[in-house]
Batch of 2 targets.
Target 1
Amino acid sequence: MTDTIEQKCLLKGVKLTDQRRLIAKVMSEASDHPDVDELYKRVSKIDPKISIATVYRTVKLFEESGILTKHEFKGGKARYEELNEGHHDHLIDVKSGEIIEFVDEEIEELQKKVAEKHGYTLVDHKLELYGVKKNLNK
Amino acid sequence: MTDTIEQKCLLKGVKLTDQRRLIAKVMSEASDHPDVDELYKRVSKIDPKISIATVYRTVKLFEESGILTKHEFKGGKARYEELNEGHHDHLIDVKSGEIIEFVDEEIEELQKKVAEKHGYTLVDHKLELYGVKKNLNK
DNA sequence: GTAGATGCAAAGTATTTGCGACAAG
DNA sequence: CTTGTCGCAAATACTTTGCATCTAC
């Protein structure tokens, strides 16, 4: 699995350095969607000499190489997550900030149709739902 | 129509000043989605003494008062548009930057269902489609 | 008259960049 | 070797804020 990231780098002609390997590792182990500051904190624990500039440069590079995706959720800093085969969108708990990933094929289809209807081919999209947890009992 | 904005302000207890009236006017006349800088340029042409700080303060105030909405499209600055009854989403031409507004009730419905399915009540959402114009001839 | 708005410049954030030292292929 | 990366600090971009002055109500 960590292999996969290194393979992706080789594939893209991205030079591998200790810092990049570390950032890749921390990101692939993250189950949340850390922002650069948080990521910097996590990698700093392992390599305290790493610079935040390197973290910024690396997430940008990884994004361009299709290893990470960037999210710009409402009113916050950019947050990153590892990009795997399966595309998904996000449901954000507005109270807790918790993020739930979901996929809805029907919505995906409709988006394509909307774009077509306006004479466009869909190349990308962003769907974010913001919700509050329902009171399940009574 | 400009009346409407002033009425909204009175309703919300928002004090009306020349600067606010001007910003409201420029925004309601805008058919695009200007960012703060662009808005500042437009109002400056009419009142060259206005400060950019006032523009920032006013768009934020108007947003909180439900007069404007803020959009944070990919990799850019925050952009604003007047908030009218009809909600809509955006289809962005990735080549030209042109923005097309659309509504799709089916998608809206499905979004609510997705939120429900995860135990949430949808309070807000963001849907942006990014597309390239199709070659219509031949 | 008074609470709140404005303009200005200074301060914050988030992110990028120039540069000399250093490391990967 | 040579090209590209790193760390550092300075620079940039966008937005917010403190303060004295001014204005709407």
Note: Chain A has a mean pLDDT of 90.
Target 2
Amino acid sequence: MNVQSTRAERAEERKVQLIQLAMTLFAEEGWAGTSMRKLAQRARVSQGLIYHYFSSKEELLLQVADHYSLAPVLGSIVQAQEGKQVRQGLLAICRELYAHLCERRDIYWILFRETNNHPDLCARLEGTRCEFIEHLKAYLQTGIEAGELKSHDTQVLAECLLRVLFLASLDSDPPEPLIEVFLDAILGGLLR
Amino acid sequence: MNVQSTRAERAEERKVQLIQLAMTLFAEEGWAGTSMRKLAQRARVSQGLIYHYFSSKEELLLQVADHYSLAPVLGSIVQAQEGKQVRQGLLAICRELYAHLCERRDIYWILFRETNNHPDLCARLEGTRCEFIEHLKAYLQTGIEAGELKSHDTQVLAECLLRVLFLASLDSDPPEPLIEVFLDAILGGLLR
Amino acid sequence: MNVQSTRAERAEERKVQLIQLAMTLFAEEGWAGTSMRKLAQRARVSQGLIYHYFSSKEELLLQVADHYSLAPVLGSIVQAQEGKQVRQGLLAICRELYAHLCERRDIYWILFRETNNHPDLCARLEGTRCEFIEHLKAYLQTGIEAGELKSHDTQVLAECLLRVLFLASLDSDPPEPLIEVFLDAILGGLLR
Amino acid sequence: MNVQSTRAERAEERKVQLIQLAMTLFAEEGWAGTSMRKLAQRARVSQGLIYHYFSSKEELLLQVADHYSLAPVLGSIVQAQEGKQVRQGLLAICRELYAHLCERRDIYWILFRETNNHPDLCARLEGTRCEFIEHLKAYLQTGIEAGELKSHDTQVLAECLLRVLFLASLDSDPPEPLIEVFLDAILGGLLR
DNA sequence: AATGAATGAGGGTTCATTCAT
DNA sequence: CATGAATGAACCCTCATTCAT
């Protein structure tokens, strides 16, 4: 075992540190509001070095997005609930997704905002969004087929669920009982 | 009657034109991406003149926000539905709100994005948001008292409704049947 | 009469001063070697102001080229010699052209060098070059028709004349008797 | 005989490859426009390695100049014509020189342009230029002494010849009959 | 009311070069 | 012999804002 870190390893570490620091600064001042100069100063690194790791400020944004992407976990969140009762399953899915979103609220907020100006970024986010919607639709569909849910437009409903959770997660002090109340409203119906 | 427009009137006209133009440019390139020079050029006006009407670029943003504020109409949207059946009323409220949001999608999107960097702007938007939530809560409450709706947390539900509609309205290609499907889900419940 | 210079006049003066200063600096260090910072400092002016007058560093180069263009005088140089004996005429043309070239040796040298990297500049210079060649060809042709000159390829000869004079003018210490010797060689022939 | 190439041999090979590649890049983008990074990338070599072979970017330029210098051939071009008739000899000299110049047009053009900023480079080029002029002068002188040529200022004429050929060779689209026409004009004279 | 010349700070980016490995 | 991480200065350019006119 080699205790000493190699040069390449330290470089990789540095890159990750830069990404993390960039995320922090982006969250504080936005992407446009964060200068490469400031990033370099905070990282105690020369400006030039940043361009050794990231070819441009835009590329840095993309790498930040990738580093904090939820894509890897979204599938397992839904799949873990298969077989359970729909109400319990949906509750678990929403809670877990919501927890993930809140945890990285700052970065998703800035990524969401930059969506307009950066088509590449938009495409990636849209991609993972669609993937999740598909999983959720499938889950709702199994609920329908199992007779637990009324037949309904799963596409619209999945999108609405995601919208509510995502937008709520952006609030600086997210309301606690949101998920239960909202899900109950949807599942139980409001009409007498 | 004075056919000639007074100085003050012409000044007011000019100001409104500048606000409208600014809205257009903001929508195209964002607030940060729109330079005062570009605004002046497009308005065929000197840079200095803009500062006679708006003390700063930030002030310009605020005035744009005020000019396109939904505050004046939000109250009436809800009040117009009082007395109707809850299902019809909610449907009308959502449709009208959604239509308003879509109409000015571009500007609301940039206002929403600038929320972070401009506390003043944030306060104003938050103000009209709260006001609308209050109206909606009251409407739901009357529905409960009239026996049309189950008792529920009206605050959370009102917020969820607004979130779904607002976020959906930001989509460049908004889904048509969204409102009906979503409302039916909420009103009728999904569980058999 | 208004003794005081208006603001617009002073601005125009300033622009010309900047062009002249730019020419000097370009001559010293080349176009690439002259930074806008240095130009601003030498002109005791902010960097931003330069971009008020010239939209880019390249535009500055073009305006320098235009300001020192020989295009306006080239025609008259040739035309002034019409009617004279060919030997006297060519001598006068060459001397005058050569004098002009030497006078602005520095700027033509840098313009010539930048020819490759700036198609716009190249086109302009090529334009005035062609124009002069045409004048010279016409002059040689009249010499032929008057029976003073042997029939020959006036295009090639005009180009050769210009090449020799131009390249000689770039030498830092141009040889004095060049023109007479060279012209005599061409006119009189070297072969016994 | 040693089939394996020694270290020194392989190093020398590498150096020559770098010089050739540098020439290509210089020709494409100029000396200033070619970064050491780009050179390293194209050579599939680290940036640091280049500094083992060339102490600086300027040194690299000088070595490129040396590698493509015409100095070794210029003498023989003239000497090969000794004894021939002057007209035939001059024609051959000019054609061969012109061919050499055209062949490496790109690199000579950039070397010529960099002349101003690099005194060392300037000195070397000036050296080979003078050397060639001396050879040419001597050739013309023998022509005079042989009675084939009128007595004339051989210095000026040699310089003019070189100027015309060099400047013509820089044209991207060099005129074909240039040499014959020009030489005939000089040799035969234009005046009736 | 209206102009546009002028500022000064800061923007993202590139570069030749060095040096520990 | 060879690497590439790291530097720091300089690059061109843009900007919101001010003020004499």
Note: The two ends of chain D are 69 Å apart (CA to CA).
